[in-house]
Amino acid sequence: MKNIYNVAQRNNDLGTETAFSVLAKANKLASQGKNIINLGIGQPDFQTPEHIVEAGVKALKDGHHGYTQSTGIPKLREAVSEDIKRRHDVNVSPEQILIVPGGKVIIFFSAMLMGEKGKEILYPNPGFPIYESAINYSGAKAIPYKLCEDQGFSFSADDILKKINERTSLIIINSPANPTGGVVPRKELEKLADGLQKFPNVVLMSDEIYDQFCFGDESFTTMLSFPEIRERLIILNGWSKTYAMTGWRLGYGIFPAKLYEIAEKLAVNIHSCVNASAQFAALEALKGPQDCVQEMNNTFKKRAEIMFAKLNDLEGFKCQKPSGAFYCFPNINGTNKNSTEIQNILLDELGVATVAGTSFGKFGEGYVRLSCANSLEAIEEAVSRMKTIF
Ligand code: PLP
Q: By residue range, what is the domain housing residue 344?
């Protein structure tokens, strides 16, 4: 068919998140009567805790139906600042906190702030696919740094620092990581912060969305711990994973003052503000009891341990023990099939939805991502189905 539109060239560079298409395919198969176990999607399988839902409902009943400040309601920005103080003993002014509709927005904002033709942006690979997509869309060149299985899927600070040149404007890091479950040790983060002293113009965006799901030997370290880079640090975080609130669309960014001004303008231009009642629910999430977070953490840890052990029993699968987030990322090279073939066999023949490693970048070939965001019974059933082939 003749292309009648003169669509802007940059749209050809947009990528996607395959987890959503796997979900659509899995739902379609389920609607045709097939028994599907969904280990594809990256969202907690828990309901948002009741007291948080109640706060959202109350906000609607109380008449919070209008626009809010584009930066977020002041009480919520203060609560985020207090939460960071409580958990990390770091001072962040509410003036630096921007409430946005989902953590993902901060990825796009960071790419728009720092990326353009002629610039380079470093990002983890395998990593959350939106990094590469947003970088490409900005016009900058996406430069992957590889996360290696034999380093527990941590990055090497030296490797990142070696890739910096005069065109580098932004580095993206993510720990605990999607899709690998890897957690970067504090000493490596320290080395990165220290090494960045030589590159004062390079901004760092740390995606800390899984910060409360960290259950390996290494505890979580926020990049806010390193005052030497605070002036060029962007933090991505939010409520989606921590409080099982993916569908509420809530997240936040922390920006240095100069970048905040621009990010705020982007927010006004694009979404005006976040849904008011969701912000009141988010406030309750931070101010209310936190045992729901600990319970989810314990549950993911238990499931991840069981899933990883069972995956290692499969012929051709070799799985690292995840240290955080809620994913296992086994190496499937021993099956002599590639990632997409494994994804398709698992879904089409066994009814188990997973995501091919290549959905997370070229260095994801040879791996497949399985989410622990399903019940232990479902995980056990999925692996026993897989045992019939592997
Ligand atoms: N960053 C990472 C690493 C993620 O895995 C996700 C969601 O899966 C996000 C950001 C986006 O989170 P949100 O749903 O709050 O936009």
A: 9-47+291-387
